[in-house]
Amino acid sequence: MTRFVRSRRLTDGPRRDKGPQLGILATIIAAAVVAAACGSVSLTPSPALSESTAGASGPSATTTILSSESTRAAVWGDFAFAADDIAAYYTTQGYTCASAQPSAKAPGFTVRRCQRTDENGRTRVIGLVTDQDGSLADAFASVKGKASETVLAPIDALDPLSGFLGATLGEAQGAALLTWLASHLGDAHAETMSGPITVATYTASQKDHATLHLEVANQAYLDVAPLGP
Fold first, then answer.
1. For residue 213, how many C-alpha atoms fall within 13 Å in the half-sphere facing its CB?
2. Which domain holds residue 115?
3. Nearest residue to 227 via CA among 110, 48, 106
């Protein structure tokens, strides 16, 4: 794998109220899901969701809010949102999050997993891996088919996984990866780059296609652990 220089981290600033932050996440994730369903990489927040982003509205609301000085703390390291804010958003979507634990795969890192069973009986999982400073370094998501699905059709995992791209990388980077994800979801293992982030989709093994995975990581994580199951 080609190595790359770790990008500059922003220093921790005062934490924002989670209400506006979760509104931004909801806008980005909903737009990513709509784009995936339509086969498009153009993300346009709906007016209703945009109203939740601190009173802003219109297609550029998310970009405007994230680039303003008052939301500087929203950008953490190589990712668009802090791990705690991502976990808080998924909690509002019915996920149950376990407490953070030391990572068995990446020494010195901490992992927090959240899980829910969707309306189709499929198990959705997200994981957030943070470094010693509490900054997000790796994030993973998966969709596992119900008991009768020994092979999960990629289309059945595309919406939640494309939404996860927006939740971790932000609107622009998430949008740019949708075509790649749709093309490779279901592969045994495929990787690409998005700025300083390595993105991978994979299955548990060459023969096990009941669960489809997505993972995004920065160089700090890759220095100690590989992507994959």
1. 20
2. 18-222
3. 106
Q: What are the start-end ranges of the H helices in 16-142?
A: 18-38, 47-50, 61-67, 83-92
Q: From 151, 145, 149, select the one nearest 186 (Cα to Cα).
A: 151
- What's the domain count of the chain? 1
Phi, psi of 87 (to 5 degrees): -60, -40
Q: How do residues 146-164 score in pLDDT, each as one tens digit?
A: 999 999 999 999 999 999 9
In a domain? residue 97: yes
Which residue do the tokens 């994979």 mark? 202
Is 12 part of a structural domain of the chain? no
Q: Give residues with Cβ within 8 angstroms of 33, minimum separation 6.
A: 159, 160, 162, 163
Spatial separation of the C-alpha atoms in residues 174 and 182, rounded to whole Å = 12
Using a 10 angstrom Cβ sphere, with 0-12 exposed, 13-18 middle and 19 or more buried, the burial of residue 24 is buried
pLDDT, tens digit, 9 for 90 and up, residues 178-209: 999 999 999 999 999 999 999 999 999 888 99
Q: What is the pTM of this model?
A: 0.71
List of residues 6+ apart from 118 with CB closer than 8 A: 124, 160
8 A C-beta contact, residue 212 and residue 131:
no
